[in-house]
Structures are given as C-alpha cells and as structure tokens.
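Minutes, project check-in
Item: structure for the 247-residue chain
Input as provided by the requester:
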Amino acid sequence: MAHSADHGLPVSRPNLGPPAIWAAFARQGAWKSWVLVLQFFLIALLILANIRLSQKPPDIVVVAPDGKSTYLTPSVAGEALVRFLADQKQEASDLTVLHFTRDFLQLAVAVNSSTIEAAWPEALSMMSAPLRARVAKESTEQKLIETYKLARVRTELVIEDISVLERADSLIHLKATVSRLKSEILDGSAISRDRLEVDLIERRVPRSIDKADGLELADFNIRAVQSSSGIGGDRNAAGLREAGDAP
C-alpha cells in the first residue's frame, strides 16, 4: 500500500530552461547584430574615404607642343595655377580648339567626291542646332552630295594658319587660312587652286559622347583671297557662304 501511495505523488523535475531552438535563435540574432555593426562601420569608412578623395587637389599634367606630358604635384605647380585650373577645368584648351577646328575644315572645306557622303553629315554634327538646320537645308536644296559625287573631284587641303582672335564668355572667334588644290579623281589633272580665309565662331558646351571636345560651331563664313581658276557653282555645291553672304 505504501508503495502505491508513493507512486501517486508528483515527481519534481529540474528546471531545464528554454528549449534549445530558442537558444539557437538568440545566438543567430546576436551574430546578425554584429554583422550589421560591421557593415555600418565599413560604410562609414567608405564615406570618409570618398570625402577625402573629393577634397584632394586634381592631378596636373603639362602637355608640351610636341605632345610630351609632364606631371606636376600641386606643391610644385603653385596655388595660383591650381586655382586657375579649377576655374578653367570645363574650358577647352587651345590645343583642343585647334584640333576641333582642323577636323571641321578637313570635313567641310576639303570636299572629295568619294568621301562627301560620309564626311558632310559628320561636319554637320559639329555645328550647333540652329546652324546645322540652316546649312543642312541649304545643302539639300543645292543637292550638295549628289553634285559632288558626280563631279569626280578630289581636294587637297593645306591649313596654313589657325589663330584664336578672341574669347568672350562661352564663344571663341578664330580665323583660319587654307589653300586648296582641286583635281580630277581619274587622271589627277588640276582643276583649280585657291586660297581661303575662314572665320569661325565656336561655342563651349558641356562634354558628352557627341561633343567630346566640349565645342560646337556656332557660325562660319569663307572668303577667297586668291584663285587661279574656278568651278562653276563651286561655292554653292560646297555649302559654304562667303563673307558677303553671311547674315
């Protein structure tokens, strides 16, 4: 009977705490917290590094006329030069202006029957929107591409001089002197030789894929200063206005 009574009493069990799965969740939560702390720390370091890089003075490279580059540290360049470069960093250099002008003259003035179909649209792309619309309209009315493709003409252009006359705000005024020799494509016989003065107004624009030089042509006119012979309708076919025809 005593054994039966003892068998009916409640049995006390030791306190085992929360189940193991809750302990695992707690450990995982703590591990995630440390990961977040580490991520915030890394982000803060990156922000500080970017701030320091943005405050770092720009690299200075001096390019000689022959194309040789020389690196200068800000301490060697001097405070005045660093300030000047900071002010002018969006302005096209004289070398860039000359390069842009030479490219335009080759495309627009050295017209060849075999290349005009590709060269003329490229020349138009270097112009500002109003100038491009006006010149494109004129060249279409004059059937420029068709005329020159049938003319079988090859032009050799020699750029004698390009001078920057004035800079005013975003505009640059230049004058170029060029000489041209036009000859037949088939037999190479000379057709005409002339010497031209070209006035150009270029505008600085934000650099982009289409305007990598940061320049566009705002206006231009051309004047013949010497000519040994001429081709009928040559000025109209070339799509270039002489000074007297400029608006």
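Outcome recorded: Residues 128 and 218 are 5 Å apart (CA to CA).
No further action items on this chain.
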